[in-house]
Write a structure and sequence with these properties.
nucleotide-binding
Length: about 160
């Protein structure tokens, strides 16, 4: 039998507003040092999710994909937001960026294409994979690794937000 920390929760998004809502629910749990990883095919909605999540954090600036800058830092209403995109760099290059300073710092880190730097990720994190189904429908798979991420997902499931 799988432990709760190995469980995957799902969320179905039929519209961008649904994606924003998931970001809003998650932002309510945030604390310094929180790490969320985001994976999915091109066009699955990673950047769209990042935008809704950032908005829920109180980010006023336009949030776009940091593909060419790799890391963008934003000041949120309560916590800094570190938005990363690992699509164009190798694990060796990522290792030289000092990512642990972000992962264990005072802000919240969201990493797009995190599977490309799997060995560098903190053990405790919330892994999110987005699967595109049709033009608008996305299925979000949330896998918590350690506390408090398990608690976040369990609470969201108890509130009827996740399956």
């Amino acid at each position: 039998m799988r432990s709760l920390t190995e469980s995957t929760f799902t969320y179905n998004s039929q519209h961008e507003d649904d994606t924003d809502q998931l970001g809003k629910w998650l932002a309510a749990f945030l604390r310094p040092g929180a790490v969320l990883t985001l994976d999915g095919d091109l066009g699955a909605g990673k950047t769209r999710f990042s935008q809704g999540f950032a908005k829920a954090m109180g980010i006023k600036e336009t949030v776009n994909s940091p593909t060419f800058t790799i890391i963008k830092e934003y000041e949120g209403a309560k916590l800094p937001f570190y938005h990363m995109d690992m699509y164009r760099i190798s694990q060796e290059e990522a290792d030289e960026l000092g990512l642990e300073d972000y992962f264990y710092g005072a802000g919240v880190t969201l990493i797009e294409w995190s599977s490309l730097i799997e060995d560098l990720l903190p053990q405790e994190r919330l892994s999110i994979t987005i699967a595109l189904q049709g033009d608008q429908t996305r299925v979000f798979h949330l896998t918590p690794h350690g506390e408090p991420y398990v608690s976040w997902c369990v609470q969201m499931k108890e509130n009827g937000h996740l399956q």
